[in-house]
UniProtKB/TrEMBL annotation:
This is 3-oxoacyl-[acyl-carrier-protein] reductase. It is an enzyme of class 1 (oxidoreductase). It comes from Ruminococcus bromii. It catalyses: a (3R)-hydroxyacyl-[ACP] + NADP(+) = a 3-oxoacyl-[ACP] + NADPH + H(+). The keyword NADP applies.
Amino acid sequence: MRFENKTAVVTGGSRGIGLAIATKLAKEGANIAILYVGDENEGIKAKEELSQYGTKVEQYFCDVSNFEESKKVVDQVIEEFGSIEILVNNAGITRDKLVLNMDEKDFDAVINVNLKGTFNMIKHTYKHFMKKRYGRICSTASIVGLTGNAGQANYSASKAGIIGLTKSVAKELAGRGVTANAVAPGYIATDMTSVLPDKVKDAMKAQIPAKRIGTPDDVADVVAFLCSDDAAYVTGEVIRVDGGLAM
């Protein structure tokens, strides 16, 4: 088991891609700290699902965009689990609109959760990883962070920022045995995409060379590799998980 005796913090871990990642890591022996906002019942349900794999699982309500709140939770996880070996930054939101119609609140909200939240979590685990001389950081970007997308200027900017942040942190921590990588999912079947009309889904599917919509497990498999010792010599990378959509 690749993650036995290791603790993984997964933000946005109570559903969708985050839950798939947490499940994959737990199946392979990781203790899991789920960070979530929103419905407490989702956090409880996720903890119950993950507990079946026999590792330690705890849930923490945490607004990652809040610097002090995220620090408090990181410190609490270290105290309760003993250490952190893996950080998965997956928490994210959308507020899709054309720039013409996008107000400041729409822009700030997405940047604060997606980009600043990722910074906050890296900042608060940075010294811990340095002292351990070990760590795996994997953040969820998006192909729109590479290509841009009409109606998603805020989201695209936040994900492009995550890519730049990842590469910078990778250079800073490489000599300490800490890797920092990102995944860039394409069109993945989640709650966020399920609300789209079937006509839109079919149009997007037609653009994907693999001719299918991705699953959260497709992303989780890549994240698990990047968080494992199999990827000890991989850092600063952004791996697209998009069925070839952004080739």
